[in-house]
Write a structure and sequence with these properties.
The structure is a single chain. This protein has 21 helices and no strands. The chain is globular, with a radius of gyration of 24 Å. By secondary structure, it is mostly helical. α1 packs across α2, α3 runs parallel beside α6 and α19 runs antiparallel to α20.
Length: 512
């Protein structure tokens, strides 16, 4: 059953990923049009401000899954229920901290954002922060139940709940917008979805899993062990928050709600690249830990690092080069001319992000080697540097300055420093890796250059022409990469499924 659950969970994850990509494509332009640029920026700003409160989880989400899974494997239901009760009480306490923190943010909205927001915007911002704070606090204790479902490997139920939420959220938002309630209505809609969806996990735990929390104090040694496990997850959460939320908060403080709106549209493109890359590494690198445990040689680890990195590059380079070539036209057609600067925001943040995305096998390797602390600390330092530099630069360069600071931070920390670490400490042959990537880069670079020249003569003003250009670009890219850049292993990955389908069709035709 767990194997079927896992396989089905993986497929449902990809379906949910597809829904999460396709739905915003149609939903976002409608939402932008109905909200207006300033109010959309205000909504995004409130969301970013309240997002800091999620740090109060202190990285315990993965800790719950780890220890509940451990007790299940040992058949120790008593310890499992005690841990369940401990985390439930802990998260109820953290929810109270969230309410307190959100209240402080709400009542200091004027002092924080007086330079960037108007008086009426500050009033609405205060209301949005309070509503989102309540929503965030509600999610804390209930998230313990969803973690229990994951720890019990009930992936089908968990992913189905996620899929329903993925579809229900934009529908509820559109209903709120059509009724004229604006950003406040969207926030209330999110709370309603929360009330309707999350209790499903509570009922499932009690009725289906037949597990109930037992409230007792855990041994101090165990609590210390849990804290030790959570600390670097917590640091990673801080880094994500400093990179993805702080830029918008600073723009809200020093620029305007419109600047936040434009920046948020540009930053959304990074998620697509991240999801594409991690979906590949998640499938191809489960054996890394086993290799390290079996004392795999540096050459073996390098071979895996290069092999997975090349595959990731094929996908990431297609998206990145396609965006450079047609991104301006896409944003003009999708979001409108008012969001034209979002192209440069996405460009400055997406391209340097490609470096860690094609090297995320390295994270699996250093984690298996228990050398991931250095990476966490490096990312924290560059994230803090990004915040400081953004605060200093935004008054002069606005949203482009914010994106430029993120770009430089990515290049220094995630590119330069981590590549030295992989080479000197982990023993991965980084020059070999970049030699492979540079050879494969010739095709996307040449195609992008050609498209930039053609864009001077071809103005894309409708979706039909845009989609035609994208399809042509993708086909030419795939053919050239297959013929000129891929090795036999990579060709087989794309060739074998096609040959298998053709073979089945021939057998079916022969039997008929």
């Amino acid at each position: 059953m767990p194997k079927n659950q896992l396989r089905s969970g993986v497929w449902l994850s990809y379906i949910n990923l597809a829904l999460g990509t396709i739905i915003p494509f149609f939903y976002t332009p409608v939402m932008l049009d109905m909200l207006g640029q300033a109010e959309y920026g205000l909504y995004s700003l409130a969301h970013s401000a309240v997002a800091y409160l999620s740090l109060l989880s202190f990285g315990f989400g993965s800790t719950i899954v780890r220890y509940i899974s451990k007790y299940r494997a040992e058949g120790d239901k008593k310890s499992e229920e005690k841990a369940f009760g401990f985390f439930l009480l802990l998260y109820c306490g953290l929810a109270l901290l969230v309410l307190a923190g959100g209240t402080v943010i709400a009542f200091n909205t004027g002092a924080i954002f007086e330079q960037g927001l108007t008086g009426s915007e500050i009033g609405r911002m205060k209301m949005l922060v309070m509503l989102m704070t309540f929503n965030s606090a509600l999610s804390f204790p209930l998230s313990v139940f969803s973690s229990m479902v994951t720890a019990h490997e009930k992936y089908i139920f968990r992913k189905c709940v996620d899929m329903i939420a993925t579809v229900a959220a934009p529908i509820a938002n559109l209903v709120a917008l059509y009724l004229g309630y604006g950003s406040v209505g969207m926030t209330l809609a999110a709370t309603v979805i929360q009330f309707l969806m999350l209790p499903l996990n509570v009922i499932y735990c009690f009725k289906k899993l037949n597990i109930k929390p037992k409230f007792s104090i855990l041994p101090k040694g165990l609590i210390k062990e849990m804290l030790g496990f959570s600390v670097f997850v917590f640091i990673a959460s801080i880094v994500d928050m400093l990179f993805w939320a702080t830029d918008k908060v600073i723009l809200g403080m020093l620029a305007s709600s419109v600047a936040v709106a434009v920046y948020n549209v540009g930053a959304t493109f990074n998620n697509m690249v991240i999801n594409l890359s991690t979906s590949i590494s998640g499938v191809l690198t489960p054996k890394v830990t086993g290799m390290v445990v079996k004392d795999a040689s540096k050459d073996e680890l390098t071979e895996l690092f290069v092999r997975v990195g090349r595959l990731q590059f094929i996908i990431v380079a297609l998206v990145a080069s396609g965006y450079v070539s047609f991104g301006q036209a896409f944003i003009r057609l999708w979001a409108g001319a008012d969001y034209s600067e979002a192209y440069w925001v996405a460009l400055l943040t997406m391209l340097p992000l490609c470096i860690p995305l094609i090297q995320n096998t390295g994270l699996s390797i250093i984690t298996a080697q228990n050398k991931h602390r250095f990476r966490s600390l490096v990312y924290l330092v560059i994230a803090v540097a990004n915040v400081v530099s953004t605060y200093l630069v935004v008054p002069y360069l606005g949203i482009i300055g914010a994106a430029l600071c993120s770009c430089v931070s990515y290049m220094i920390g995630q590119g330069f420093i981590m590549n030295i670490y992989y080479y000197k400490v982990t023993g991965i042959n980084i020059p070999l890796f970049w030699g492979n990537i540079l050879k494969m880069s010739v095709i996307p670079v040449l195609m992008t250059g050609l498209c930039m020249v053609l864009n001077r003569f071809l103005y894309i003003d409708n979706w039909f022409v845009f989609l035609g250009c994208v399809v042509a670009f993708t086909v030419i890219y795939a053919v050239l990469m297959y013929l000129l850049a891929m090795n036999n292993y990579e060709k087989d990955i794309f060739r074998k499924p096609v040959l298998k389908v053709v073979s089945k069709l021939k057998r079916k035709k022969a039997s008929d």
